[in-house]
Amino acid sequence: MAVITYREALRAAMREELQRDENVVLMGEEVAQFNGAYKVTEGLLKEFGPKRVVDTPISEAGFIGLGIGASMLGIRPVMELMFWSFSYVAFDQIVNNAGNIRYMSGGLINCPIVIRGPANGGTNVGATHSHTPEAILASHPGIKVVCPATPYDAKGLMKAAIRDNDPVYVMENTILYNDKGEVPEGDYIVPLGVADVKREGTDLTIVAHGRAVITSLKAAEILEKEHGVSVEVVDLRSIRPLDEDTVLASVRKTHRVLLVEENKPFCGVDAQVAYLIQAKAFDDLDAPIGRVSSIDAPQIYCKRMEDQQLPHPARVVEAALKVLA
Amino acid sequence: MATPAVLTHPESLKNPAGPSEFAKHPVNTALSKADKVALYTKMARIRHFEQRCIRTYQQGKIGGFLHLYVGQEAVAAGTISLLGKHDHIITGYRDHGHALMVGMNMNECMAELTGKVTGCSKGKGGSMHYFAPDKNYWGGHGIVGGQAPLGTGLAYAVKYRGLKGCCLAYMGDGAVNQGAVHEAYNLAALWDLPMIFVIENNGYSMGTSQERSSAHPGCLAKRAEGYGMAWDVINGHDVYEVRAKTAAAVKRAHDESKPTVLEIFTYRYFGHSMADPDKTYRDKEEIKEYREKKDPVLLFENELLAEGVLTPATRDAINEAAMAEAEVAAAFAEESPDPTVADITKHIYWEEDNRGKDTTSRGTIVFE
Ligand SMILES: Cc1ncc(C[n+]2csc(CCOP(=O)(O)OP(=O)(O)O)c2C)c(N)n1
Ligand SMILES: [Mg+2]
């Protein structure tokens, strides 16, 4: 297996799907000639030409809506949002049109669109550019949302997303783009809706997604080394569909749970996960469920404070010890 | 307004080195010597502030995005120099030049960039999100085009309150393709609002040349006709021309409560932001050409030297003072403290900031 970056893994997935299916088209601001604002699509214009890799004006409502329409007629658009924060100007298309078209047509119309791009804080760019909309979007039936944390998952989930017949929104993370990991060279998919146990343990389950997985793995190391605690880390990978079984199996094993996410707490993904656990594994719990999210405020600009606002290993360790107390 | 028949850059842009044909325009002849020196000083201050920002960024003290205004100074300087008590402005993320023009000081601007509590937004907004409502400056907006409807709302409020004023909303040549901009155009025209949309056409939106982003690219301002709005094109390298043509739009807003679209041709010398290496989408030669032949600060300087308003000595003194001021700002930003963790949850809701006062809401509003 080759060791490549998260960015390269995403690119490999798109390249392979462009080769595999002539209906796959990449679109977005600066994706072609400029090779992508974050270079995820680097080289793809050169390889596939301007029919398959297309630069758009700064018209998110327009080009995302166009992609949804094209998908209804069998195109498989993979649309880049330079940041998921910019999806908000295209919210009607993303939610109302993509999310409802199958249902409202009584199942007559497919909408196989992928919308992808970074959705994260931690880069010192202020409130307007730091949104993490996975919970908002996943709250709409009809929409699928995935949040890869590793290069392996990034490639596998992206390929699964492109082959899916419903809208799939892929939330990437600029801070992870340079992370390296082992990724198979050929074709494989990570099915949507399958969580992954990223670290096995017996004393505490941490459930996380996106970069919070990486943060949790660091915290798990500290908990083991400094506190002798064995932590299991479950990476949701996919927010909707949600792999309830893997989460519940881990809870039944460790009996204690800490939920970690980079969202703001109110109606975050973990509010749903907490409900799930108490509803289906209440008798297995030895302690109330713990939770770590971003501090509840619009994203602060000051870098030093933003690092405090986001979950960080020390905060996760502290919360874990409370659940274990 | 007589709208130009052909779609072209203004004539004056073709030969920008000569004396400005707009020097004799009444809004410019009305300027005293001192006014002219002050206007030049403001342009020089923007230039030196931005250049000091580059160093602060390179020292690793500014993170995130830093969009510089160098090359575009005459746009903010020319337009804002015309404004009065009830005139308002709002812009995008390339907002430092406008901020200095409305009278924000370099210290609060620099401290904001380094995320300090002494910054204009207390370290919460950053480079893209400057605000100074006391100076009729409503931001600093990070989402492309989002400021156009907001500005239209400011114009609406001015009119609603019976004031003689207007709002200038600035945006780039890429921003004109946001839906919100078109909705704002229609509202401003439909409701006769005292509104001026200023397109700062610097030729590129990030790495996309204007020809690649806009249908009918010869003239972006002409889209105003679809909404029955007046429009004009302006050579943004000539601050006298910017003033002369913007004055007509301000007058239209003040006297008739009618909107205008102005397209001001300008150029940015640096990458889209400091994160853009600026190596692939334009020629070094092109940048050189603008810097050497069309530099707005230099052209105005030459103009004022020829008019006898500036001497080489006064020019040098002005530039040295501006550099020194930027240096002081950098030191101020360096010494200022960060916001605290407790500050993170301040300024979210009015009642959180005004504890104990009677409020109309109850219950938990900030969650753990
Ligand atoms: C809705 C939205 N889409 C995309 C972006 C990313 N972005 C920021 S600035 C920019 C280019 C804008 O170019 P232009 O309007 O010409 O202004 P300039 O930067 O040249 O001043 C882009 C694509 C954004 N901030 N908001
Ligand atoms: Mg531009």
List unreliable stretches of 5+ residues of chain B. Answer: 1-7
The H-level CATH homologous superfamily of chain B, spelled out, is Thiamin diphosphate (ThDP)-binding fold, Pyr/PP domains
What string, H for helix and E for strand, traces the elements of chain B in order? Answer: HHHHEHHHEHEEEHEHEHHHHH
Q: How many alpha or pi helices of chain A?
A: 11
Q: What is the class of chain B in the CATH system?
A: Alpha Beta
Mean pLDDT of chain A: 98
Give the helix proportion of chain A (percent range). 25-40%
Strand content of chain A: 15-25%
CATH class of the largest domain in chain A, named Alpha Beta
> What is the general shape of chain B?
globular
The dominant shape of chain A is globular
The CATH H-level homologous superfamily of the largest domain in chain A: Thiamin diphosphate (ThDP)-binding fold, Pyr/PP domains
- Largest sheet descriptor of chain B: 5 strands, parallel
CATH topology heading of the largest domain in chain A? Rossmann fold
SS field, number of helical segments of chain B: 15
CATH architecture of the largest domain in chain A: 3-Layer(aba) Sandwich
User: SSE string of chain A, helix = H, strand = E?
Assistant: EHEHEHEHEHEHEEEEHEEHEHEHH
Sheet with most strands of chain A = 7 strands, mixed
Number of distinct beta strands of chain A? 14
CATH topology-level fold name of chain B: Rossmann fold
Number of strands of chain B: 7
Q: Which characteristics define this entry?
A:
heterodimer; A: 325 residues; alpha/beta; Rossmann fold; 2 domains; seven-stranded mixed β-sheet; five-stranded mixed β-sheet; 11 helices; 18% strand; globular; B: 368 residues; five-stranded parallel β-sheet; two-stranded antiparallel sheet; binds thiamine diphosphate; binds magnesium ion
